[in-house]
Amino acid sequence: MRRVVLTATGVVTAMSLALPAHAGPTKPRQVTEQTTEYVVLYKEGVPAERARAAVQAAGGTILRENTAVGVATVRAAAGFAAAARRQAALEGAAVNRVIGHAPKPVRGLHERFSVEKEGRHILRRKDPRGGARGEEPLANLQWDMKQIGATGSGAHKAEEGDRRVLVGVIDTGIDGSHPDIAPNFNRRLSRNFTTDIPVDANGNEVDGPCEVPSCVDPADVDDNDHGTHVASTIASPRNGLGIAGVAPRVSLVNLRAGQDSGYFFLQATVDALTYAGDVGIDVVNMSFYVDPWLFNCVDNPADSAADQAEQRVVIEATQRALDYARARGVTLIAAAGNQAADYTKPYVDTSSPNYASEPGESPRERQIPPSCVSMPSEGKGVVPVSATGPSKRKAYYSSFGNGYIAVAAPGGDKYDTADGKLDHNAGIWAAYPERLARQRGELNADGTPNVPYVIRSCKGGTCAYYQSLQGTSMAAPHAAGVAALIVSRYGKRDRSGLGLDPRITESILRSSATATACPKGGSYTYRRQVQSPDGSFTEVVTSHTCEGSKKRNGFYGNGIINASAAVGGR
């Protein structure tokens, strides 16, 4: 899954700063001192002119701002954050660093495997291809769509979606040329709010060399693969190729806020959310979670005063953007997280801060009380989605919590098998950019896949590729797709086509879900047979406790989403 963010790389020189094409910066000053980027939050109700003057008085230069929610990216020398807090017109400032993170692309078998791409070295896969009559060629691999009734004989009998319904994918980008995405891709409205970052403050590679001179990728490119997978799950069309998404006739809009590496910065995320509200997006999918602070706390003793101030800015700025979008008709869907953590209980975080915006910065252990929040999934008005496997059990990696989870959806669980061993067919299959598959050496010279987690589907002279992933990042787009079907079914004509009050959309999504009780006894023990590269297996045993009733509990929320019930298909 993934998270929220800003614009660039901590310590930079003024002359080395590359700005996104959409930004409206002031003219850069010619300076030789080292400067840092900050995200500044204006106090609510303060005129923009007064806030800008306060930024200048504190020693900052505005590079870009989002006046809709009062957020600006500022360049200044060290000490600016403290100076900004003394300005009455400013709420605070945070070093402009990553607030969100998606899994880094796996470029080789020796790299660390994420939950979503676990088991890349395992060379076994059953391949039951061939869809039933009237279904897409790879429909037999889509246990996920069967689990929620998003099939030709289920929800799609009543509703396949309406092209006027716009689903925004706030992620690492969308491969708009993928044959199983292109028919539903809205190129005109798609935007990229990010600038590629070659290295962090410690000199470690982040995005690597820029692919284009401006370092701002086109709005139809995904150099990570995550956003393309998410988009495909939502709305791959019924076109006789590969798979069909949950809502195969709605329109996909790329709202890129994630770096190539998978990091998400605050300014980009805020810009994506406010843009969604401005152009009439109906549903947004947010398969990311807040980094570098996995949890943001306003007064955690484990953090310094400066870190507390920074996290307060993250919470407030993100919430303002969420409120802005929702007030303009956007239903907000988010992944619940892959930490296998109960978000309503104390937690030990050892991953934050996970991005070096200042030299020498590295993760440290923090005690996290339940009052701390992961953004955007714990934002007000957001629908957090946990993940299920093929057997409908909560996935072993999925975070949970009674009062936190709204609904559950298929996210894949590659160990949800009879023998507890990994099977890629227990993951979620969705679109994969061919360019990345070739770059990563996953295809033979003739174009056939040479790894078990990638498959190909061809129709005539057109071929497309798909990969198996797992994660709450994969669960959220199933819910976003059902939300899009709900808007298609019950929406009314509005400025952008069709629209439906997000409160109604969420209510139908929750009330139509299939209520699913906690495991007998309240807890579930996972026994996974994890294979090492040498072929040996190690049993990994973990237990999670589910609290609540059948109609609302910490594993499933109000239940597993049901596309058929949501649109009257049964």
Please report the total strand number as a whole number.
Answer: 24
Strand content: 15-25%
Q: Could you say what the CATH topology is called?
A: Rossmann fold
The number of distinct helices, counting runs of at least 4 residues, comes to 11
Would you identify the regions where 5 or more consecutive residues have pLDDT less than 50?
Answer: 1-33, 104-113
Strand order of the largest sheet: 8-9-7-11-13-16-17
End-to-end separation: 31 Å
Gyration radius, to the nearest Å? 22 Å
CATH architecture: 3-Layer(aba) Sandwich
Helicity level: 10-25%
* Biggest beta sheet attributes: 7 strands, parallel
Give the overall shape: globular
**Overall pLDDT, averaged?**
88
Domain module count: 1
CATH H-level superfamily: Peptidase S8/S53 domain
What does this molecule look like?
- This protein is an alpha/beta fold and 570 residues long.
- It has a single domain (101-566), classed as Rossmann fold, CATH 3.40.50.200.
- Helix content is 20%, strand content 22%.
- The chain has helices at 48-57, 80-85, 143-148, 155-158, 226-235, 266-279, 305-327, 434-439, 472-490, 502-511, 563-566, and strands at 11-12, 35-42, 61-66, 71-76, 90-95, 98-101, 166-170, 191-192, 251-256, 263-265, 283-286, 289-290, 331-335, 347-352, 364-368, 382-388, 407-410, 428-432, 454-459, 462-469, 492-494, 497-499, 523-531, 537-545.
- The longest helix is centred in the middle third of the chain and has 23 residues, at 305-327.
- The radius of gyration is 22 Å and the shape is globular.
- It starts with 10 loop residues before the first strand and ends with a helix.
- Residues 1-33 and 104-113 have low confidence and may be disordered.
- Residues 1-23 form the signal peptide.
- InterPro entries: Peptidase_S8/S53_dom (IPR000209), Peptidase_S8/S53_dom_sf (IPR036852), Peptidase_S8_Asp-AS (IPR023827), Peptidase_S8_His-AS (IPR022398), Peptidase_S8_Ser-AS (IPR023828), Peptidase_S8_subtilisin-like (IPR050131), Peptidase_S8_subtilisin-rel (IPR015500).
- It comes from Thermomonospora curvata (strain ATCC 19995 / DSM 43183 / JCM 3096 / KCTC 9072 / NBRC 15933 / NCIMB 10081 / Henssen B9).
- Keywords: Hydrolase, Protease, Serine protease, Signal.
